[in-house]
Each structure stands twice: as C-alpha cells, then as structure tokens.
Amino acid sequence: MTKLRRNAAALRAIRGVDAVYISVNVGRGMWLSTAAAAIARMSGARVFLHHHSYSYVRRRTARMRALTSAAGTSAQHIALSATMAADLRAVMPEIRHVVVVGNAALVDQALLDLPLKRDGAELVLGHLSNLRLDKGIAEVVDLASELHRAGTPLRLRIAGPTADRESARHLDRAERELGNLFEYLGPVVGPAKLAFYESITHFVFPSRYVHEAMPLVLYEAMAAGVVCLALRQGSIAEQLAGSPGRLAESVENFVHEMAPDMVSTPVSAAASKLARQAFLQALTDSERQLDDLTKLVVKPDR
C-alpha cells in the first residue's frame, strides 16, 4: 500500500470513533494533520494533537493557524514540556487546552543498570545522532581538538550514521587531529548503544536542529549517568534542569564556553549520580503525565 493510500485509509477510519490522536506533522505534512483534525471534529470525535517539533512553536504560521482552527477550541494540545506549552500558548492564544507529557518514559531503562562514572575516570566525550552539521558534528570535533591541543587527556567516541558529506569530512578531521584518541562506531542499537553510553563520561550535543524539542539522546545519557553539554535549543534547558549538564548560549561560543569547565572539572561520581537522579525525576513525571493523558482519553473530564 502506498503512503497516499495509507493516509487516505487513516482519514476514512476517523469517522465513528470517540477520540482521535494526531501526531502533528511538520512542513507540508501539517496540512494532512489539519485534514485529519477537521474530519475528526466534524465527526464529533475529541481531538488530541501531539506536538513534537519546535519549528512552528515560536513562530505563528499559516499552517499552524489552519490546524488550530480545524481542530477547534475544545481540542487537547499535547506538549513535551512546560516550556513548549508556554511558548505554544504565547504564539497561538486561541489554544485553550494544553497538557504536558514528557518523553522520558520512552527511554530504554536498561541504561539505569549501567555503572555510574568513577571519580577521576578518564574523560571520554561522546556524540550520538544522525550525523549532520545542524546536529553539531563540527562543534563536537572542535571541542575535542581544542581540549587535546590544551593538553587535556581525553578520548572522543562518535556514533550514528552519516547524513551528508560534510559530516563524513568532520569524522576524517577528527581522525587526523586526534589519531587513536578518536573512534567512530557507526550506527549503534541495542547492546551496542548501551556499551556506547557506558564508555563515555560526557555527552556532547550542540544541536541547533530546527525541530529539536526534547531529544531522547539527552535523557539516554542522563539515565546512564553521563553529564550532558548542549545548546539552549527547544526545551533542552528544562530537560537538563537539576542535572550537572551545561548549556551554551550560542553555537558560535560553544567551544569557548565549554572548554574551560572541561579542563578544570574532573570526572566525578557525584556528577554522574546527579545526572541519573535528574533523569529519574523526569521519568517519574513522564509516567504520571502519560497516566493522566490516558485517563483523559478514556474518561474525559466533561
């Protein structure tokens, strides 16, 4: 069945159901979400719109206005964080109902069984993503190279598929500048992903990806007791709250802001424990929020 036929079948299936959950598409795909919301509303179904992207949350767009209008004022909008919910309300004041459901509950909890980092352990920087420039691959290599030139003992491990030629070029650069201190693991899943997180002490994620909201990789790292270094993008500041993670204000200053702390702050068991505790709190909140959402869908408060 083609994608178009699957979409058409999904739209036809809306009629006659009590509640319709829509994971909101971005770009032109938002028009399909709008059509689904309109059909659901006309059919008398309750509409739940789940927002996963920050690309339209801070800027009022024609597509978002159309989606909000089609869904109606009784629609329930689901945001990934309190920050996202507040930004959504600010940009679209006609939205009346917003619930927060974090995504920490989606993380593989086998990460919680990994040992915490030890005091004075070797500094190992790690990065995992679909490797591309806007995910921060260049800045990851820049940071590791800067620390290496400054005489800081470290290793760098990068995992994930290359998405373009530029990311492959930066992997080659890391090998030239760091030699055997650098390792590229390629795509990792299952036990290989667990081994990756167990092997690193700091997760470097200078992403300015336009859709970035609450990246699961940051929660994965925190669950493994890894300290996160990131940009103030999407809801990442809220995500890292309570953890020893560090935030840079801009990609241009990422290395300048992060390098001094990396030189002066050794790997510590206390920071590793704090990172995991911050994840556990997020996990508790996420599970409660999912439970509340389930009750709202099954037994609406009318």
Automatic annotation (TrEMBL):
Origin species: Mycolicibacterium cosmeticum
UniProt protein name: Group 1 glycosyl transferase
Keywords: Transferase
InterPro entries associated with the record: Glycosyltransferase_grp1
Coiled-coil features, chain-numbered ranges: none
Recorded superkingdom: Bacteria
GO terms of molecular function: glycosyltransferase activity
CDD domains assigned to the protein according to its UniProt record, in alphabetical order: GT4_PimA-like
